[in-house]
Amino acid sequence: MFEPADPTTAAALARLYDLDLTEDPGDLDLYLALADRTGGPILELAAGTGRLAVPLAAAGNVVTAVDLDPAMLERARLAADAAGVAAGDLELVEADLRTLSLPSAGDFRLAFIGLNSIMLLADRNDQRRALQVLADHLAPGGLAVVDVWLPDAEDLARFDGRVILEWPRADPVTGAMATKAGSAQYDAATGTVVLTAIYEEGSQGEPARRWVRRDRLRLLGAHELAGFAEDAGLRVEVLAGSYDLEPLGPGAERAILVAERR
Ligand SMILES: C[S@@+](CC[C@H](N)C(=O)[O-])C[C@H]1O[C@@H](n2cnc3c(N)ncnc32)[C@H](O)[C@@H]1O
Question: What is this structure's pTM?
Answer without folding.
Answer: 0.96
